[in-house]
Hints:
This protein is α+β, with helices and mostly antiparallel strands.
Amino acid sequence: xxxxxxxxxxxxxxxxxxxxxxxxxxxxxxxxxxxxxxxxxxxxxxxxxxxxxxxxxxxxxxxxxxxxxxxxxxxxxxxxxxxxxxxxxxxxxxxxxxxxxxxxxxxxxxxxxxxxxxxxxxxxxxxxxxxxxxxxxxxxxxxxxxxxxxxxxxxxxxxxxxxxxxxxxxxxxxxxxxxxxxxxx
Length: 185
């Protein structure tokens, strides 16, 4: 019986360690993404970047004419790194001008250097949370919003690898079985 408890505890400890520690994975983890959903909840358009190719000076954008509310240019949302002094701007998302003849919906990651494409450093400042899911629907064209289109900016949306989740789940299951057997005895 002690070996079952030891094994379950070990699985739980290792699962928690892997879950909360940064470990290199085979594929680069997703850093940030901007997703537009149609009224049925299906992905209409998206743009994302992984940690291994993320460029602080780059603007990642969705180039669909008529997608944005052009009046929102200059009203970007800037995410602030929590607990960093002086204030460090992490990400900015909103309506951007890429000199394409129309505005685009975009984001820039981990940067202080590209506010001019958004018209300013932003007018909405939020503390970044992990994983951060921020509503970007207000940047869509009013007609699309009226039809039920939505948009979400995901900041540092890291997902634990399946093996880590399984290890954690097996540890929790082992402890639950142990507690159940102890209650029956």
